[in-house]
Amino acid sequence: MAKIVPLISSGTAGPLGVLHLPRLWLKVSLEARGKLAEGYPGIGQGYDMMVCNALGLNPDAVKKFITDSKPTYAQFEAWIKQQPGVKLDKATIHKLNVAIQGYIHDDQTRKNILGANGLPDDGSTCPDAINLNNLDDWYEFHQAELK
């Protein structure tokens, strides 16, 4: 069974407008089927928890719903809307999206990602975590599928 690098960017939003939510859905969906590439958590401590915390979602409930129901992305968003206490107002979503877009990795993470890709750590690459994570995903995908 092939392990899959999740190639939906954290900079992608679905109909609700929440950045990273489609990636979270994909990672948990792949993990539930034993198909998530090594090194990728279904729900990790970074953007995944930022999204769950900001929207008022219980990470265990998210994981259980996706694992048990195998929803499409649209079905996942519909489920989110039905959760008690969920925060989907424009201000909450905007604040979360700004936090996601503004997140910067620590120096060592940045150096590791750039180094793996043969890029200099000289400020010439966008330093935000979304772009660095994309670069890391593309590198991992290349190593797993295209090398």
Question: What general form does the structure show?
Answer: globular
Mean pLDDT: 96
Low-confidence stretches: none
Global structural class: mainly alpha
**Order of SSEs, N→C?**
HHHHHHH
Approximate strand percentage: under 5%
SS element count, helices:
7
- Taken together, the total number of domains comes to 2
Radius of gyration: 16 Å
Distance between the termini: 18 Å
> What's the count of strands?
0
Biggest sheet features? none
Question: What proportion of the residues is helical, as a percent range?
Answer: 55-70%
Could you explain how this protein is built, in words?
Helix content is 56%, strand content 0%. With 147 residues, the protein is an all-alpha fold. The chain has two domains: 1-87, no CATH class; 104-147, no CATH class. Helix 2 (47-55) packs antiparallel against helix 5 (90-102) and helix 6 packs parallel to helix 7.
Name the features.
2 domains; 7 helices; 147 residues; mainly alpha
Entry summary:
By secondary structure, the protein is mainly α. The protein has helices spanning 21-32, 47-55, 59-69, 73-81, 90-102, 107-116, 129-146.
Write the layout of secondary structure elements.
Blueprint: H1 21-32, H2 47-55, H3 59-69, H4 73-81, H5 90-102, H6 107-116, H7 129-146
Helix pairs in contact: 2-5, 6-7
